[in-house]
Write a structure and sequence with these properties.
The chain is an alpha+beta fold. It has two domains: 116 residues, Phosphorylase Kinase, domain 1, CATH 3.30.200; 107 residues, Transferase(Phosphotransferase) domain 1 (Transferase(Phosphotransferase), domain 1), CATH 1.10.510. Helices cover 30% and strands 20% of the residues. The chain contains seven helices and nine strands, in the order H-E-E-E-H-H-E-E-H-H-E-E-E-E-H-H. InterPro entries: Aur-like (IPR030616), Kinase-like_dom_sf (IPR011009), Prot_kinase_dom (IPR000719), Protein_kinase_ATP_BS (IPR017441), Ser/Thr_kinase_AS (IPR008271).
Length: 241
């Protein structure tokens, strides 16, 4: 079965509103082991989101270092985002590319959902932009190229990211780009989408004007990021519609 077929199989609409509907019923790649939180030694916090936190963690048996995303079920349910979390896990677990943050597996208990992700030791592009005074042109070009390569890969699988921004561009061991946070991603092989989502400073004209959108909204966000890494400006705030 091709990657596209796998994504199509696991990404259909599911209107189930029970709290455990945020957990995929079909085991994803890397999820064959019955993980539990005691399998990990927890390290420092790497980030904080609306529904939980991301921690550096070490799998006790192998010593392998990962990023462990922990979300609270009650908060997911209260926001009616069970389907969104389910879709994030199902889609990202089938995406394997050098410029995409890997999702290795998932598990849950009575209160929390745990997602096991690739650990990107050099943080994210947003922090990098704040730290440096100037990117060399070849470095700026590499960041833009690698983001574009990651986007090209998911777009060929009919997946749109829909929340591309420097905070969601992680940097691996050699500062290589790793696109992350697929919480707003969607599998859309044919129809255009209507949902208003993303981060304001990187929203495309289609999104702001409330019309249907497709993968080109990711291209717009990439253009905004390219402007930032080339000119080291915070956001494209001068653009109006």
């Amino acid at each position: 079965m091709s990657t596209t077929e796998k994504i199509e199989q696991v990404s259909g609409d599911n209107k189930e509103n029970e709290i455990d509907s945020c957990i995929p019923t079909k085991k994803s790649s890397g999820a064959n082991k019955a993980w539990k939180i005691s399998d990990f030694d927890m390290g420092k916090a790497l980030g904080k989101g609306r529904f939980g936190h991301v921690y550096c963690a070490r799998e006790t048996k192998s010593g392998y270092v990962v990023a462990l995303k922990i979300m609270f079920k009650n908060q997911i349910k209260d926001a009616n985002l069970q389907h969104q979390v389910r879709r994030e896990v199902e889609i990202q677990s089938h995406i394997k590319h050098k410029n995409i943050c890997r999702l290795y597996g998932y598990f849950h208990d009575d209160r929390r959902v745990y997602i096991i992700l690739e650990f990107c030791k050099n943080g994210n592009l947003f922090t990098k932009l704040k730290e440096v005074k100037k990117f060399e042109s070849i470095e700026a070009a590499r960041y833009v190229r690698e983001i574009a390569e990651g986007l090209d890969y998911i777009h060929k699988l009919n997946v749109i990211h829909r929340d591309l921004k420097p905070e969601n561009v992680l940097l691996g061991r050699n500062n290589e780009v790793k696109l992350a946070d697929f919480g707003w991603c969607v599998f859309t092989p044919q129809s255009r989408r209507q949902t208003f989502c993303g981060t304001m400073d990187y929203l495309s004209p289609e999104m702001l004007n409330g019309v249907s959108h497709d993968k080109k909204i990711d291209h717009w966000a990439l253009g905004c990021i390219a402007f930032e890494v080339i000119f080291l400006k915070e956001k494209c705030r001068f653009i109006t519609f």
